[in-house]
What we know:
The chain is α+β, with helices and mostly antiparallel strands. It folds into two domains: 14-82 and 358-424 and 464-673, Collagenase (Catalytic Domain) (3-Layer(aba) Sandwich); 139-306, Neutral endopeptidase, domain 2, CATH 1.10.1380.10. It has helices spanning 14-17, 27-30, 49-60, 72-93, 101-113, 115-121, 127-135, 139-151, 194-213, 218-236, 257-263, 269-275, 288-300, 303-318, 324-338, 346-357, 359-370, 373-396, 402-413, 438-454, 502-519, 540-558, 574-591, 608-619, 626-635, 641-650, 653-659, and strands at 69-71, 160-165, 168-176, 254-256, 282-285, 416-420, 476-478, 483-487, 561-563, 566-567, 622-624. The two termini are 17 Å apart.
Amino acid sequence: MKFVSTATIVICAVALFSCKGNDSKTTADSKPFLDTAGMNTSVKPGDDFYEYVNGNWIKKSAIPDDLPGWGSFYAIYEDNLKNLRGILEEAAKGNSAKGSPEQKTGDYYAAGMDTVAIEKAGASPLKPMLDKIASVKDYKELVNLISESYANGDGDLLGFYVGADDKNSAQHIPVFTQSGLSLPEKDYYTRTDSSSVAIRKALSNHITTLFTLTGTDAGTAAKNADDILALETEIAKSHRSPVELRDPQKNYNKMSVADLQKQTPNIDWVNFFAKINAKTDSVNVAQPGYFIALSGLLASKPIELWKTKLSFDYISSNASLLTKAFRDANFAYNKVMSGTKKDSDRWKKMVNRVDGGLGELLGQLYVKKYFNEDAKKRMDELVSNLQKAFEIRINKLDWMSDSTKKRSVAKLNTFLKKIGYPSKWKNYDDVTIDKTNFFASAKSVQLHNQKEMLNKIGKPVDRMEWGMSAPTVNAYYNPSNNEIVFPAGILQPPFFNVNADDAINYGAIGMVIGHEMTHGFDDQGSQYDEVGNLVNWWTKEDGVKFKAKTNQVVTQYNGFTVLDTLHLNGELTQGENIADIGGISIAFDAFKMTKQGKSNEKIDGFTPDQRFFLGYAQSWRENNRDEIVRMYVNVDPHSPAKYRVNGPLANFDPFYTAFGIKEGDKMYIKPENRAKIW
């Protein structure tokens, strides 16, 4: 459901977006909001609009060695990292009050930057857990150890979290999901193309290296790698594919703990809940086939194999907390997946770790220093305007019955809107940070976050809780909460600029808003009602029509070739594609309600409508390495940036009008074949 496609990552082509002044009508003031120099006007807008808007920028832009790509998300992300680094380094130097956000975030950052102490500790922090694994005598003891690990913030194989009950969204429920794989998804274990073979080889080398770093001899380490790959290949057979995981109904299998125990007799669930100190009658087993298979494999495979697997998982999940040799091993593996040429700087890793673990402490400091409250007010206005535009569109739909329209409008008007940062910050009082012990500090943070989650079991959902930190460059829709969320981090150029003209803002952040709104009505979100319950609220006839329209989107996007003979997976990406198509439509309608949207005044030689589409396409410009593109096509529900621009626009009539697109142009689709849903 999340908005960002390639990494949570993000631009600001500095000179092009930093502008002061509020007069958006003059050419002089407006130039910074639109990078006309980045355009490739030798390409017709109707042949490849993404290239027309971004071609020269793409040609001239270089991908930093430590990143899988470069573009709008990447640049904002990098700028945010620098801002957060400044906050953390200042906090690390100070003598802040014990327990304050400055003290905890600053000390955590300092602990992670103390590589001398980390090198001195070596692999010793792993020893207590590895010794426990080594002492295990049978699968029952193994499952008991796994259960204990979940209580301590680690955990393995059981894919456990606590979330809203899909059919009773006001209440939390334990959820169990498929797990146990090191590679991104099941088909990586069996595909025979050269890229997949190379990735499996890289994983094997990675496993071998990590074991040797913990003292295992080379021969045994290599055998461990072979054994783990063979076991994971077997586990993968029970996994659902990324496409199959998109079905909320199939992922909802609520049952009693007793029934789960009957289906998976070799996993002691009563003991599991006792170890995590939780009481519950019911659980949601999202993918039962995995747990049934796991139960069988636990008893049928040699215990030494399972101990090897558990040891590797523990080493791997904690390698980033250890010495340079472990971190280098991580990079050697990850570069095969992402194509990056060098590892990212230590400070970047630590900024991300502090944000990931103490997000609402760091968020407080970030908002105080960098967030413009005027941006929040402008976003409130934009969201309200798009909501109005969406309601009008729903009421004008020619394929939907009046009763379903009424329910759709009700859902739209009950969206919970979260902008910038939480109204109440979380408490981290139980977190202990030791500046001299990075591993222990990381485990304290981990334990806090695990306890926070476990404490939700059986309790009502707090609808005001955020799923992202304020500095995050991203946005999301959560169907169980029926909420749209826009953290402070994304409210920056080129997505949002309080000084930009409406055409630019509505084309960029307006599309983001519309995208998230449409998620409430995509192939997944449309299955949840206005209070976030997974229930069929459609008429049968409307449901059939909606399915036909979504199938049209699937077919279209299946036809896009990304690399060589690699095609987009229209089924995997359909939710995001539906949201993109709906998002640009809603944003444009809202823009047409503004003063600029009603005018014909040109800026930079472009009409208001043209600027809207230019701002939209510019915000999505991106260069990515082939390796990361291949991975995203296999596992990411988002289409690559080019198709997030050209795909929706090829289906949108006002785009044809704005740029005179006609039959014979490469993007042209006959009116009757254009995908129009919301």
